[in-house]
Amino acid sequence: MSLLSSRPFRFSVAFPGPEARSVLLLCAALLLPSAHRAGAPQVFGGRGEPFHRSPSTWVAEGGGLLLWGEGTEVRVGRAEAGGVPLSILTLDSPGTGGVVAGPFAYVAEAGGGLRVFDLRDPEFPSDAGRLALPGEPGPLGLAGDLMLVAVRGEGVLLLRLAANHHCHVEHGSTCCEDLDPLDVAYEGLVSSGADISGLAAGSDAVAVATRDGRLLAFELAPPHRRLGAVRLPSPARALAQAGGGFYALFQDRDGGLYRWTDRGAVERAAGIRARGRGLAAAGRTLYVAGESGLFRMENAPLLEATVSVTVGNFFFSPSVVSLNPGDQVRWTWAGGSHSTTSGTCPGGICSRDGIWDSGVKTSGTFSRTFTEPGSFPYYCTLHGDSMTGRVDVSGAPGLSASSSASPVSGPAPLEVFFTGTATGGAAPYGYLWDFGDGASSTDANPNHTYAADGTYTVALSVTDSASATADASPLTIQVGPEAVEPPVIASVVKRGNPFRLIVSGSRFSDDMDVFINGSEWSNTRWKSEARFVLKGGGSLKAAVPKNIPVSLRFVNPDGGEATVTFQWP
């Protein structure tokens, strides 16, 4: 296999250390018939917040930056900045996925290869080159300095990035020396046997979703042994790894956001109405790219961590674990007869406190989710103070605030509906909105009308009952005539038998008008917002003769238009 680049080239993927085997547990759980006979899925999570309202097909997060793709454009923004793009990158063909690795972004193009951009100044990114691949790239993933690229007809390529970690902070600025983002090394190929629609990487394994509806897990180390394979209820569009446990998150074909738990249950996220296409996770925040925009779910319970403790002969390992509220401990029996029983052993005499008791077991597991802060000692009832452990749960999460608005642009007078959300801290909460035009509100979910054209910055401050305060990321409201976004023409390709033109790009309306050298051509077919066909056989061939340039004009009903010159062969 050859990998070509405009300069040298590199790749990898993973699931966390001991948790890697939880891939097997996940796969086994998915095989349970009860997982798909339980009726309607359980609902989890809060409502999804609109983050950016333009359609998007994929999303990636890294280093505090967020990338999301819309046709041949890639928007670059800060994850906490309310979906306001800092810059827009332009591709030669529609993007299919991306990753942020150090100061660089790697973006897959449907036309083939990876575009590389330098994001050290995200407001003014620069083109850093291109990497050629042996086929059409799909989703991308990252595990440390290993990049994973799904390639149609091949599998998952493993490329090791050579130079993305030679950065340091000096006097408040990021300094990167001798970086060459095209210096990558081929490290292997994980063959999936089918085209890949999504992948999720951990520290030593990768899970992939295939377009024929399977979930596969592979070790990253050669020879890339398969850990498991299951049939999903329907094909998944995207995967993400999230939280400290290991979870696979799917975009089901009905557009909803789902997760599969290690008990085989199917759960659906509330409030995500994005008809999702792409998925990314960062800590406890989940980003969903879809037809109706980019959504964000914060502090999603699906991202809770699972910490593993081994129950061995006369020991718990580790004996002390630290959690956040909502995290889970799973004890796994490795030998002998033991229990995990909450309680203390003062002076060597143990007593139960009634919080939990696994009972005496010789094998299997026992799990408990800790929702309240505190210190929780436990012991084995058969061995008393010679076999003890402790679970420490951190204090309640700090106060945080978020806000959203709808609509965020339009002509005056513009009525905008705002939503404020507070989490953590000590309820009840107080809200103070500054609408940017001199008006304010103390309602949690106010509405406000802007009478004059202009750009307004909206701020929300939340105060809890303990007088702690938190500010939401500012919102921008644009009042005035709405700009018309034209269709984007990425390519026009001639096909024969019968003669026709295939137009690829983005923002194609289903009733877009087409003009050839000024004359309307009505024999067309809309395939999608990214694909349009001019039909007509011999009559079209006469209107677009060989070796003669013609003008093709595309006009959407909203007035947005684009014109390109086409000549064949």
Short description:
This protein is an all-beta fold. Strands 37, 39, 40, 42, 43 and 44 form a six-stranded mixed sheet that branches. A five-stranded mixed sheet has the order 29-35-34-31-32, with no helix packed on it.
Any overview of this molecule?
This protein folds into 4 domains: 18-303, YVTN repeat-like/Quinoprotein amine dehydrogenase (Methylamine Dehydrogenase, Chain H), CATH 2.130.10.10; 306-393, Immunoglobulin-like (Sandwich); 401-479, Immunoglobulins (Immunoglobulin-like, Sandwich); 488-566, Immunoglobulins (Immunoglobulin-like, Sandwich), CATH 2.60.40.10. Strands 37, 39, 40, 42, 43 and 44 form a 6-stranded mixed sheet that branches. Strands 29-35-34-31-32 form a 5-stranded mixed sheet, with no helix packed on it. The chain is globular, with a radius of gyration of 27 Å. 40% of the residues are buried. The chain has 569 residues and is mainly beta. The two termini are 31 Å apart. A hairpin with a 2-residue loop joins β3 (58-62) and β4 (65-70). The protein is built from 2 helices and 52 strands.
